[in-house]
Structure formats: C-alpha cells, structure tokens
Amino acid sequence: METALTELGALSVSLLDAADAENERAILEPGVGETPLWNDIILLALFEHGTHEGLLLHALDAYDGGIDWSTASFRTVEDQDWERAWLDQFRPMRFGARTWIVPWHSEAPAEAEGGVIIRLDPGLAFGSGTHATTALCLDWLDGLDLRGKDVLDFGCGSGILALAALKLGAASAVGVDNDPQALTASHDNAERNGIGDRLQVYLPADEPVRRYPVVVANILATALVALVDTLAARTEAAGVIALSGILQSQADDVLAAYEPYFEGLTVTAREDWVRIDGRRRA
Ligand SMILES: C[S@@+](CC[C@H](N)C(=O)[O-])C[C@H]1O[C@@H](n2cnc3c(N)ncnc32)[C@H](O)[C@@H]1O
Q1: In order of start, what are the domains of the chain with their CATH numbers?
Q2: What confidence tens digit (pLDDT) does each residue in 8-42 have?
Q3: From 17, 40, 77, 251, which residue has the greatest number of CB atoms within 10 Å?
Q4: Which ipTM score applies to this complex?
Q5: How far apart are CA 132 and CA 270, in angstroms?
Q6: How many CA atoms within 13 Å lie on the side-chain side of 66?
Q7: Is there an atom of ligand 1 within 6 Å of 181 CB?
C-alpha cells in the first residue's frame, strides 16, 4: 500500500500505532523492515495541498479494492519536516532505577543527573524507548550488574539496548540486525555517545560465532522461536537472556521453545507485550 500511495503522489507515508493515536500521543515510531510491533495501524500519507480527495480515493480503490477506503479522512496540516516530525514527541524517559534515554536534540532533564544517560537519534531505525518491548528490555538491563561483561543485542534497531548496556558498564557490545539502516543507526548512535569503539555491528550472516554472558533480543515471537538454536548457542552457561517483541498470547510458544535451553524463565508484561528472561542451563 505504501507503494500505491507513493505512486499516487504521496510526499511521505508513515505508519502510526493506532493505540498511540487513541491516546492522542501520536508518537510515530518508525518500524524498520517487517517488524512493526503494533496490533492496529493507521496509515498516514501526506499529499500536496489541493490534491483532489475524491480522485485520490477512486485511484486507491482501483489499486486495492480490498481496503475500505471510506474510513479514510483528510485534514490540512502546517508545513514541517515530516520525516523527523515524530522526534518532537520523543522526550527524555527513565527506565528502571537509573537509565535515561534522552533524544539527541534535547537537554538531559535535571532528574537525570547522576543517572546513566544514553543520547539517541533513532533515525529510521526502530528503538526510541517509546515502545513497551524496548522499555521491558531497558528495565531488565538496568537491573543487571553489567560491569565488564560482553553483551549481544540481536535485532539491535537503533542500538538502544546495546548502548544502554555499554553505558551501564558493559565492556563491549555486539549489535546484529538484518536491516542495514539499523546497523548505520546503531553505529552513529554509539559514536554520538562516545562509545563507538565498544560497539560492533553485523548483519546476521557476518555475526561472530561466540558466547556472551548477556544476550537481549527484541524481535518478534516467530523470529525468536526460529532463532532459538542461534540464541542458545550465543549464551554462555549460566549467562542471562531477555527476549521481547512477544505478545502476551504468544508467550507460551516462546517459553516452550526456550525451556530446553534456559531455566528460571520469567514472564513480565507491559501493555499487550511481554518480556521473557532466564538463565542458560549449564
Ligand atoms: C522491534 S525492533 C527492536 C529494536 C531495538 N533492539 C529495541 O529494542 O527497540 C526489531 C529489530 O530486529 C530486526 N530483525 C528482525 N528480524 C531479524 C532477524 N531475523 N535477524 C536480525 N535482525 C532482525 C529488525 O530489523 C529490527 O531492527
């Protein structure tokens, strides 16, 4: 559908989390690749002022008659930098006891003093902290003693989790993502935070074969189940893992896949999502 809108002249096309729109927060978290972690989406397209609404709907219906275009609505908006507009909604946020995600363009708030501050520009990659799955993983990292440890962030997106781990004391982090834009965003964010020398990023095919004491993977339940052998092989004996991107209704499938390799698996919920964390069996 994005292609149809673009071919019909849309200047930009965005996906909006319907839940956010209902809350009037209207935070646009860019979904990279094929992993928008939302139940209902709103498709938002920007056209030149004066575009004929009736003709546009007619053309869209011809392109895809399977969508009920009568639910489409139009409104006139002030001109602005649309690709970046959502960043105005992105504010400093605290996770756990001490971890602060602070947008690159804002000042750290006074309350963040003495905390662990990660300066972030997600760019077009997923991961600003506004999504429940990211928040669940940040809370988990915040509660660990990461000093001197090596961390694997599988599905790193903006790099937010790897960067948080590094700022919380990890010695090094490896970020893996199948979207090259995510690797660029992670690298750039590490440089911005002055920790570029401690983060390595890889596509899955190039990722080093080794074990880590700490592994975090915020992907999707189906991908986590498919990746169980890889993630189990990457976690050292007694090492810890956190998995997210899992809807509450999918938790049992992920638990069943990981139980043979991990013990003490615990499910923590936030909104419709859960994190599953546990320890690698010896
Ligand atoms: C939900 S985002 C998480 C981003 C960030 N780690 C966070 O917690 O906000 C999932 C990321 O995993 C990547 N991804 C999805 N499937 C993958 C796979 N099979 N291998 C590697 N990366 C994958 C996506 O490109 C995306 O950047």
Answers
A1: 2-85 (no CATH), 90-280 (3.40.50.150)
A2: 777 766 666 555 544 333 333 433 333 445 556 66
A3: 17
A4: 0.99
A5: 6
A6: 2
A7: no
